[in-house]
Amino acid sequence: MADFRIDAALSTADLEALLRRVGSERYHINHPFHRLMVEGRLSRGQMQAWALNRYCYQAVIPRKDAIILSRIEDRDLRIAWRERILDHDGVAGQPGGIKRWLKLATGLGLDAADVEAERFALPATRFAVNAYLTFVEKRSLLEAIASSLTEMFSPQVIGERVSAILQRYPYIDADTLGYFTPRLTQAPRDVDLALGYVRQHAVTRETQQAVVDALVTKCDILWAMLDALHFAYVEPRHVSPGAFVPQDPVRS
């Protein structure tokens, strides 16, 4: 088991290096379900299950950021942080990340109303998403902001995922995957803001440990969501009562 304990306060460079090590070891790019996806080994039904369940997470992101926003006292930081909400909710008639993810789901053949209602999502997905909301509400502002630092690793997963899907799933085109293109610029901008806050405020061993633990927790939440998908739709294929059931044969 990886040891992310901090025995003495780190320099900002060493703290960032440790945070990046958390991602290299705990981010869901290493999950077996993700590996099956990029290897082209998921059926359409399994891809649908992924898109439907991931929608629950995408839909909660602006709510999560609204909680964080409500806790920020610094006006300039609030102004910068609210961009995240606009990115996902959309603004001035421009669709945001939630609508773009819904387009991905419907492009895979799912009904938009079913996806938005989230009633066919796995119970474990809903528990994981709600756990994230609870975390940003109950923990310190520093921990809540640090939990967003999984975005440090998202360009890597997006780059791998998009190219692999376009190459290996002929029924999916670039337009369907339109959600991911803006994230390639939004995520680095968001990381700069969150990482700057962490550098400024995580200066003691205790606050640095809290930051690292927050990032581990966020990685665990994302990993747990893929655990649930793998259990339900890959092995041993135990779908929770009332959850989505693929209509095509699944692959192992």
Short description:
Helices cover 68% and strands 0% of the residues. It has 252 residues and is an all-alpha fold.
Question: Mind sketching the topology for me?
Answer:
Layout: H1 12-26, H2 32-38, H3 44-71, H4 75-89, H5 97-107, H6 112-117, H7 123-138, H8 141-147, H9 154-168, H10 180-201, H11 205-233
Helix pairs in contact: 1-11, 3-4, 3-5, 3-7, 3-11, 7-11, 8-11, 9-10
Fold and architecture overview:
This protein has 252 residues and is mainly alpha-helical. The chain has one domain (12-233): Up-down Bundle (Heme Oxygenase, Chain A), CATH 1.20.910.10. The chain has 11 helices and no strands. Helix 3 (44-71) packs parallel to helix 7 (123-138). The longest helix is centred in the C-terminal third of the chain and has 29 residues, at 205-233. It is globular, with a radius of gyration of 18 Å.
Report the order of strands and helices. Answer: HHHHHHHHHHH
CATH topology: Heme Oxygenase, Chain A
Separation of the first and last Cα atoms: 28 Å
Summed over residues and divided by their number, the pLDDT gives a mean of: 96
Largest sheet: none
Radius of gyration: 18 Å
Number of helices: 11
Unreliable stretches (pLDDT < 50, length at least 5) are none
* Helix and strand composition category: mainly alpha
Helix content: 55-70%
Please tell me what the overall shape is. Answer: globular
